[in-house]
Amino acid sequence: MALLTLNAPPATTIPPEILAVIFAAATPPTRSRYVIPWEVTVSHVCARWRVAAFDTALMWTNIEIYSGRCLDRVSSYLTRSGSCLIEIWLDLWQTDKDGARGRPGWVDPIVDLIIQHVGRWRCLLVFTYYKSTTNAILSKIADLGAPMLQRIRVVDEGEGSREEVAPWDSRILAGGVPSLVSVQMDRVYYLPLLANVTTLHLHTPLFKVNTTVVSALASACPLLTTLSIHGSFNAIEEDWAIGRHSPIAMHSLRHFWFCNDAEDMSVASFLISVALPQLTSLWLDLPRYYLRVLHLLSTHPSRPMFPSLKHLTLQSFDFYPTLQAAKVFPNVTTIHFAYCPSFHVSFLKNILCADVPYWRHLDTLVFRTSKDSHAQKFSSILLDIFTQRAASGLPIKRLLLDKDALQSLVNHVDSMRDIAVVEKLTPFNYEDPWWLMAQSTYEDRF
Question: What Å distances lie between residue 301 and 238, 297, 298, 323, 328, CA to CA?
Answer without folding.
Answer: 16, 9, 9, 18, 12
